[in-house]
Amino acid sequence: MLGWTIPDHRGLGGLRLVELADPIAAAGDVVLHLHAAALNPADRYLAEGLYPARPTFPHVLGRDGSGTILAVGEGVRGWKPGDRALILRGDTGVTRPGTLAERVAVAADSLAPVPETYSDLEAAGAALVSLTAHQALLQWGRLAPSVVLVSGASGGVGVATVQLAAALGHTVIGLSRSVAKREQLLLLGATAVLDPRSDCWRRELKELLAPRRVDLVVDTIGGALFSELVDTLGFEGRVSVVGMLAGPVPAFNTASLFFRRVRIGGVAVGTDSRDSQAAAWGEVVSLLRITGSRPVVDSVFPLEEVPAAFARLAEGPMGKVIVRMTARAPEAGLHTVGFGGSS
């Protein structure tokens, strides 16, 4: 089978399309024939050594994917060949080979059925961003209808957060630099979307909300914007930190937290139990079904064009960047790499 590997932690520049040994369904595992996979910023973080996990190299990236089960290992219950499944959780693409390949061996308890109304492309990119959005919104408890501010609102997690927050009854304010994306976010449930490059976006937000202030910030950006986000919060406001697309936060003044009792918490969906993630996924699917929302796909690339797909991810897509698997035969000159039968 074909797949993309990295040889070390020197970044995405090391990606190589190679021929891999077919995975085997060990005890507790299934082999998934992938129809599509999705890219995440976490893939780049792992490739650059910025992720706490340390995979064995060469390593196949990719945490998200959907497909059809080819084989089940000993002890697997509830799954059979031919079932449609998506990867909900686990160490796929982190410490185990990931989904940027035609097939992958996955722990059976890391899977969930594909919702009947989802296409393969939608299913491939829905799980990780949805679970991240769910944790970001609910880790502080189930808030009464509140004001939620989402930075990087047009990215994968941002879009999922806007959709889910709106479905939960919150007033959702997004931040996006693109006029076209701001218009699309309004259609997805945002009450308003502001341009964070504007010198007066915080004044515009204050006028829009008066006399209220922001109750919860979901920050996917980090960088210099972080201090401005904290400044928008009211008393006992909360910040859920999801990403750092703009890099580390420079010179943050912790005194800005004191008098409003602001709390900041990180989001890490991998720390949740299997049962809690399954429950969260079920709630997400149910809420989006009620509101008529669907996973948002920005663009689709064939497996052979994964570097171009990562380039699109770096540009700031509207929703998810998807890799569609193809049946194209391996080309001459491809390297052969084995993973000891586990993909």
Q: In words, what does this structure look like?
A:
The protein is 27% helix and 25% strand. The protein has 343 residues and is an alpha/beta fold. It folds into two domains: 2-127 and 296-337, Quinone Oxidoreductase, Chain A, domain 1 (Alpha-Beta Complex), CATH 3.90.180; 140-266, Rossmann fold. Strands 3, 5, 6, 7, 8, 15 and 16 form a seven-stranded mixed sheet that branches. Helix 2 (120-138) packs across helix 3 (156-167) and helix 2 (120-138) crosses helix 7 (274-291). The radius of gyration is 20 Å and the shape is globular. Mean pLDDT is 93; it is low at 327-343.
Unreliable stretches: 327-343
- How many DSSP H or I helices? 8
Biggest sheet, in brief?
Answer: 7 strands, mixed
- Strand content bin: 25-35%
CATH fold-level name of the largest domain: Quinone Oxidoreductase, Chain A, domain 1
Query: How many strand units?
Result: 17
How many domain modules? 2
CATH homologous superfamily name of the largest domain? Medium-chain alcohol dehydrogenases, catalytic domain
What is the level-2 CATH architecture name of the largest domain? Alpha-Beta Complex
Supply database-style keywords.
8 helices; 17 strands; Rossmann fold; disordered C terminus; 343 residues; alpha/beta; 2 domains; Quinone Oxidoreductase, Chain A, domain 1
Summed up, what is this model?
The protein has 8 helices and 17 strands. By secondary structure, the chain is of the alpha/beta class.
